[in-house]
Specification:
The protein is an alpha+beta fold. Among the domains are: 132-246 and 339-346, Roll (Pdz3 Domain); 252-334, Roll (Pdz3 Domain), CATH 2.30.42.10. The protein is built from 13 helices and 18 strands. A hairpin with a 5-residue loop joins β8 and β9. α1 (2-28) crosses α2 (99-127), α2 crosses α9 and α2 (99-127) crosses α12 (429-442).
Amino acid sequence: MITLLAFVGAIALLVVFHEFGHYWVARRCGVKVLRFSLGFGNVIYSKRFANSTFDKAQDRGTEWVISAIPLGGYVKMLDEREEEVAPEDLPYAFNRKPVLQRMAIVVAGPLANFLLAIVLYWGLFIHGVPGLKPTLGDVPQGTPAAIAQMQSGETILSINGETIPSWQELHWMLLKLALRQDPGQAASPFATSGGSGQALQQGEVKIEAQSASGTPLFHLLDISGLEAKDLDGDFLDKLGLHLYQPVVLPVIGSVAADSVAQRAGLQEGDHILRANGATMQRWMDVVEVIRAHPGQTVQLDVQRGALTLHITVVPQAVAESGKTVGKIGAGPKVDEAAWQAMFTEVSYGPLEALTQSLRKTWETSAISLQMLGKMVMGEVSMKNLSGPITIADYAGQSAKMGVVAYLSFLALISISLGVLNLLPIPLLDGGHLLYYVAELVKGSPASERAWEIGQKIGIALLGTLMVFAIYNDINRFVSG
């Protein structure tokens, strides 16, 4: 129910903002708006309000409606191409307006979505956005991070001179830099770093960090080895960058009722020393052994106070992500203070927050377009497309995490909606803009035949995208 309400609420808010952008500019341009609809299909509620802009004797006002299918919306304007228009209403018809006014009306919808994202991010940055400190965990040998002499425990302060306040921002910055790479360009000097005096080479980024003891550190991280396909997953893993996490010892902190662990006699506070003879140093060592032995006997050596016990468990076989794993129903003892120390809060003053919100909206839009371009070129998998099922799932997850997470989700989806609608695809706002630009160039409107062909192309393209997106949604749902 939370997921459903969060999803419907998100769609309603984003659609209302988008369509109100069209509506507001249309009214400013003197266009008569016949209907403002939230949703498609049959009308389940309607209310009509008169417009003072027009002759009330001739104008029945705008009909504001809620329709049955809450997956979009529309603004219906007076237009001779859709219905016969009375002679006295011709000055108020959309198609009779100058082409620049029509372009302004069309682009107002996506711009409203960008404006909503800016406002949301502005408020979030003033309030404070929780994040994880950009502190490195283990750095595997042979990775670009290890070659750059980066070490576990150091905290990233900046990348190419831009402050990195959180792990999320580190991920975002490196994604942006990776997308800018020209994979066909040979290594050559393109900039000079400050501070360390080292010359940056093609594909290198300058990292300023601080060791656990507070010593300033500088690194040149080579990201040129990243390929477009790496961006489908966790590309930071290929670079050797892992988030620091406090060590969780193999000590049991909770035992589920009527679980394998409880029936075997395991208790809270038990320290697991060995599993099938292998020494257990971390809780994840225990998890790996248990998961690898579904339905098989696992011998545990457990320290309980001054006693060392030998306990046999047979992990329950559970299907997970297409494979069978073992589980016993025990959880670790966690040092809450150590985990809380990993978190930080990023906040700014009102003016700086506005600057940051503009930057965030611009960069998110640019990265979305770059990823779409790489999908079209076949450089990035179409698996990155998401449809309504995934969006609904994320809406529910973010709503459960709190107001800040949900508003961040709304801002991201609002930007995505704005970018999508500006694509030069007929049926979308960007497609209409394309026709109006052509009209500006040639001096006359596109023919009805051109509009008809464009509509068919648009339906085919959007239909294909939707099939891919829903297929990905179902595949993610099935595979977990």
